[in-house]
TrEMBL record:
GO terms of molecular function: oxidoreductase activity
Family: Belongs to the short-chain dehydrogenases/reductases (SDR) family.
Chain segments annotated as coiled-coil in the UniProt record: none
Gene3D superfamilies in the record: NAD(P)-binding Rossmann-like Domain
Keywords tagged on the record: Oxidoreductase
Name of this chain's protein: Momilactone a synthase
InterPro entries reported for this sequence: NAD(P)-bd_dom_sf (IPR036291), SDR_fam (IPR002347)
Domain of life where this protein originates: Eukaryota
Pfam family, one: adh_short_C2
């Protein structure tokens, strides 16, 4: 999977120094950073049926990864893009320096995280997700999400900014400032 065009850097996005190291390792290997796709996200480790089931540690852990981690990713990507005058892409977050701002919000995909969180087996989840998605009977998978991200980071989307690609039948409101 990894080639001379890719590297692996262990990174806990909730730890700013880890994110800074991942960005710096990218610069050291490739000389620049054009695209940041911040894809880290977690759900509580146990099913939550009521707000009364949520304690500080649960919400703090989810917030640190899903919100603070996304912020650190944007911050350290912008830290290297701006001085290098890179007109790249940060998929999910904001930037005023020619950096495109987009978000990908896919419908459910039968990943281990989703299956564990819902308690469903893959076949049951696939049937439910295919029926509930935007295109009845069409099942969204990881490759569909990857293709949406690749489009948003390509020159084909040079004037696409402030978009939220929902990939499912939920309504979305996007405010571009």
């Amino acid at each position: 999977m990894f080639t001379e065009k890719s590297i692996f850097v262990h990174c806990n996005v909730a730890i700013e120094s880890d994110v800074q190291n991942a960005v710096d390792a990218t610069i050291a290997k490739f000389g620049k950073l054009d695209i940041m796709f911040s894809n880290a996200g977690i759900a509580p480790g146990k099913p939550i049926s009521s707000i009364l089931d949520v304690d500080y540690d649960i919400i703090n852990n989810v917030f640190d990864v899903n919100v603070v981690g996304a912020f650190f990713s944007a911050k350290h990507t912008a830290r290297v893009m701006i001085p290098a005058n890179i007109r790249g892409a940060i998929v999910f977050t904001a930037g005023e320096y020619g950096i495109k701002v987009n978000c990908v919000s896919p419908y459910f995909i039968s990943t281990p995280l989703v299956l564990n969180r819902t308690g469903m087996d893959k076949q049951m989840a696939d049937e439910l997700f295919a029926e509930g998605g935007n295109l009845k009977g069409a099942l969204l998978d990881e490759e569909d999400v990857a293709k949406a991200v690749l489009y948003l980071t390509s020159d084909d989307s040079k004037y696409v900014s402030g978009m939220n690609s929902t990939n499912y039948k939920q309504r979305s409101v996007t405010i571009c400032l």
